[in-house]
Here is the input.
Amino acid sequence: MTRFVAGRRAAAFAIAFAALAPARAALAHTVGVSSGEYRLDGTVLHGDIGMANRELARLLPAIDTNHDGAIDPEELAAGRDTIARTVIGGIAVQADGAACAGALDRAWVTEEDGGAVFQVRYRCAAVPGRLTIAMPMLVGLTPGHHHMARVFRAGKPEVAVLDRAHATWTVGGSSNAGIAWSMLKLGVAHILTGWDHLLFLLGLILVGGRRRALVGVITAFTLAHSITLALAALGAFAPSPRLVEPAIALSIAYVGVENFFVRDASRRWRVTFPFGLVHGFGFAGALREIALPRAQVPVALVTFNLGVEIGQLAVLAVALPLVITARRAPWFGDKGVKVLSAVIVVLGVILFVTRL
Here is the structure.
């Protein structure tokens, strides 16, 4: 009786998780990422800062006059003074401890992805020996937001990944260890906020099966997405996100449909491997945005992928026991799996349509 009650509770939790997913599914990969490319020219630091529209709306809610969670070109033009105060006030540059005066040169919305670009300029009193960039602006952005900063100094690029906990960077102080730690955290955040990938994993484990079979399924998925993540990060091959993102959505719908016919996971690795190849290209999106120098790509690739695996294992460590416990209840194995699989199919189709 106790086991039956525990099974019903676990099943109820799983169904509640799926019921909440629609509100979050459309927000897959909500971990915020902005980029900054800075060029030191004598005493002047020029910067081009790119930011996703949803992050801009969060940072500057006052200029979102129609309250649609996005900033259009008209709102951007009307809010220029507010943007200048927020951006210049949110990025502090120092040369040998002395503040450099900042100014906003241009701001525009990019047509292809609806993001925004800011051209900024910081004039220092003398040519910096020690250049420091601090970003208190990160506090106003999505928790977990990462700013991918790349500075060209004497023609040589240096890269750092800034977040709330590490919002200050002294150029010349970056190291492979610092990049590795940043990429590890970014990998964990990427999978934990990637609800499309998590829905796919949930669909895979719903049907249950022997532990050896489940390990094989997850291993095939891991191996496959590691291969394509490496191909994309190293610049060997990377299909357009316009193809990859809808394909990921279709993989979710397919797994949900297959759950109505598959009784165990013994041969499911044959499905998870090709789909894992597709998901790997999705994981690679974050690394493509960083544009790391080639010398730092191997370290970033390994640690980012490791972070993805750590996040994936953490989710499975919670989800698998719940599913195993829930399947002990006869009603869950019969009806519960079908209900959750139907929800997964619907979400996959919705994601597919919205990503076309």
